């Protein structure tokens, strides 16, 4: 059908100007990851009619409407920030929704939390989630994190079952960092330094992790949305 409307179908994603995923938000995240978070193309999310997804504005059973929208400029291009994650000064990873750091065993996970060079707190609990504004509606929301407008360049830090008592204390609530901040997590070496690091919907295998650095990347992906389908309309339709 794409060829019928003047589009050329290619076999390699590196040759494509438009990359479409057919499924839901999870499929969209995989498509972005498997094509290396390209910032020189447009990502399009396509799902079934009646399904609510934050990254998917188009429906597979309304193909003519989708092509017309792209042909007659009924769409807007949005740039979404990525989170950059560096583990023990190795090559960085990227994620679109969130990075989560969790204990891999049934034991309290302990990390020193630094904002830029400031020691902010010593965290004890199950772990942390650091999300982008678009990712704030996913795992972050399920642990009572705030939903953040995607036009705000920031990342949100939410706790997973933090331990708070007369001896141990954390902030105990989500907090938001601006785009120029760096979050550093120093894993306390107490026998529980093999965390599960989740990058969107994939897990990173780790051993003897000492330091995790997290910041908003300068790199952004571009996606398209219908002009009459804003982020907050999708949030209302999905959750209310």
Task: Give a description of the structure.
- This is Inorganic polyphosphate/ATP-NAD kinase.
- InterPro entries: ATP-NAD_kinase_N (IPR017438), ATP-NAD_kinase_PpnK-typ_C (IPR017437), NAD/diacylglycerol_kinase_sf (IPR016064).
- Keywords: ATP-binding, Cytoplasm, Kinase, NAD, NADP, Nucleotide-binding, Transferase.
- By secondary structure, the protein is mainly beta.
- It has two domains: 3-80 and 220-239, Probable inorganic polyphosphate/atp-NAD kinase, domain 1 (Rossmann fold, 3-Layer(aba) Sandwich), CATH 3.40.50; 81-218, Tumour Suppressor Smad4 (Sandwich), CATH 2.60.200.30.
- The chain has four helices and 15 strands.
- The strands form two sheets. Strands 1, 2, 3, 4, 5, 7, 8, 12 and 15 form a nine-stranded mixed sheet that branches.
- A hairpin with a 5-residue loop joins strand 4 and strand 5.
- It is elongated and about 65 Å long.
- The mean pLDDT is 92.
Summarize the structure.
The chain has 240 residues and is mostly beta strands. It has four helices and 15 strands. The chain has two domains: 3-80 and 220-239, 3-Layer(aba) Sandwich (Rossmann fold); 81-218, Sandwich (Tumour Suppressor Smad4), CATH 2.60.200.
N- to C-terminal separation? 35 Å
Query: What's the SSE pattern?
Result: EHEEHEEEEEEHEEEEEEH
Helix count equals 4
The percent of residues in helical segments reads 10-25%
- Beta strand %: 35-45%
The first-level CATH class of the largest domain is given as Mainly Beta
For the record, the CATH architecture of the largest domain stands as: Sandwich
Count of the domains = 2
Largest sheet: 9 strands, mixed
Residue windows where pLDDT falls under 50 for at least 5 positions: none
